[in-house]
Write a structure and sequence with these properties.
This protein has a single domain, classed as Immunoglobulin-like (Sandwich), CATH 2.60.40. By secondary structure, it is an alpha+beta fold. The N and C termini lie far apart (122 Å). The strands form 2 sheets. The protein has a 4-stranded antiparallel sheet. It has a 4-stranded antiparallel sheet with strand order 2-3-8-7, with no helix packed on it. β4 and β5 form a beta hairpin. The longest helix is centred in the first third of the chain and has 33 residues.
């Protein structure tokens, strides 16, 4: 009856296995960062023609209009804690800044997989209609930000008749 050498004992991880686990964790983190970077780059490239800019991870947006208002709405944000939200408008550019934080109830080292994104998300978009920015309203409800921008009364060009004199 032969006895297996101690170095073949499978109950404790070898230094090679520990090194491999560390390597895989590092590769997974790098892959996550690369994915976020590519996602941001692609979104920026797509939005360049629409005069929008994106930084960091960005919420998806819908913009639509009714007869009286332009409405900008985010897709539902998957957050555990209530985010900090800032909305500003300069000229025809609307900027949305959302900051989310991970739950402090779970220790960082306890995570085996973490796909939710946390941090600062900034999005700037052009509003294609003349609006009254000073009358804008923003509401955060059920994980979704809704911004209502009242339209200016009549923004069609005023035609001026030119009198021709000789």
């Amino acid at each position: 009856m032969s006895q297996e050498p101690d170095h073949l004992d499978q109950t404790t991880p070898s230094s090679k296995e520990v090194g491999l686990n560390d390597f895989l964790a590092e590769v997974t983190g790098a892959a996550r960062e690369l994915t976020q970077s590519i996602r941001g780059s692609v979104t920026r490239a797509i939005n360049q023609s629409g005069k929008t800019s994106v930084t960091g991870n960005t919420p998806l947006l819908d913009m639509y209009e009714t007869e009286d208002v332009v409405i900008v709405q985010t897709a539902p944000l998957d957050t555990i804690t209530t985010p900090t939200v800032e909305v500003s408008m300069a000229g025809d550019m609307l900027t949305i800044k959302i900051t989310t934080q991970a739950s402090s109830e779970i220790a960082e080292e306890a995570y085996l997989l973490r796909e939710r994104l946390y941090g600062e998300f900034t999005r700037t978009i052009q509003i294609p209609r003349a609006v009254k920015a000073h009358e804008a309203k923003a509401r955060f409800k059920d994980g979704r930000l809704t911004i209502t921008l009242p339209k200016m009364a009549d923004t069609s060009p005023n035609i001026i008749n030119v009198q021709m004199t000789e």
